[in-house]
Amino acid sequence: MMEENIIEKVREFVEEEHGRPSAKYGREIYEFHILPMVNCSLELAEKGGGDLEIVELSVLLHDIGSVIHGRENHHITGAEIAERKLRELGYSEDKIKKVKSCILSHRGSQPINGESLEAKIISDADAISCFDNLSGSFKATLVYEGLTQGEAKVSVREKLQRKWSKLYLEESKKRVKPKYEAVMLLLK
User: Fold this and answer.
1) Is the separation of the CB atoms in 100 and 15 below 8 Å?
2) Is the pLDDT of residue 42 over 60?
3) Most buried one in 15, 19, 65, 84, CB count within 10 A?
4) What are the backbone angles phi and psi of residue 151, rounded to the nearest 5°?
5) Residue 99: closest CA among 146, 68, 62
6) Which domains does the chain have, with CATH numbers?
7) What's the mean pLDDT when you consider all of the chain?
8) Are 56 and 118 in contact (CB under 8 A)?
9) How much is the pTM?
């Protein structure tokens, strides 16, 4: 019961932060990235035997640093925010450490620090989300980064190549392969 309560409180916190006028990327990230990623990561965890609680909390909090402080080093700021919030909610220190590890290692542009199954699930689910929501990747490059269409095309292609090359789980690779091939054809 306590874990469900913590998950619900974290979900409320994350949704509230995404809805603030000061949120760096607005509410759409919650709706089109976080929520679909929750479903994807829980599915991967169920198939692969990952800890569902750690996975769900990690997904909910993995981008909170970018929402509050901006994209640069958001894996680090997000882990710090997650630690404070989970500690405030009375979550166990051992589990906080696991969630932080997942957040710190989720970025495709960073080497994975966590070798746990849960960290790999979070990293893969984040990558899968990029393939499932191409419009979000283009919006980020065009609107938030101010790139031209040509620059955005190159940026998104390179990001998706990185994401593909860093998939850890065979289940993730099977899921993404047709999308990867299609998007590389479209963005060449």
Assistant:
1) no
2) yes
3) 65
4) -65, -40
5) 62
6) 2-186 (1.10.3210.10)
7) 90
8) no
9) 0.89
Q: Which residue has the tokens 């054809």?
A: 185
27 pLDDT more than 90: no
Q: Tokens 């710090």 label which residue?
A: 80
CA–CA dist 25, 71 (Å, integer): 9
Helices then strands, each counted (H, E), the chain: 11, 0
Tokens of 31: 């709706």
Average pLDDT over residues 138-160: 94
In the chain, what percentage of residues exceed pLDDT 70?
93
Q: With bands split at pLDDT 50, 70 and 90, how would you rate the model's confidence at 1?
A: very low
Structure tokens at 100: 């932080």
Q: Pick the closest to residue 118 from 86, 94, 85 (CA basis).
A: 94
Q: Are 65 and 75 in contact (CB under 8 A)?
A: yes
Q: How far apart are CA 20 and CA 24, in angstroms?
A: 9
pLDDT tens, position by position, 64-82: 888 878 777 787 888 999 9
CA 58 vs CA 30, 35, 54, 146, 182: distances in Å: 14, 12, 6, 29, 30
Burial of 107 (0-12, 13-18, 19+ CB in 10 A): buried
Are 97 and 51 a contacting pair, CB within 8 Å? no
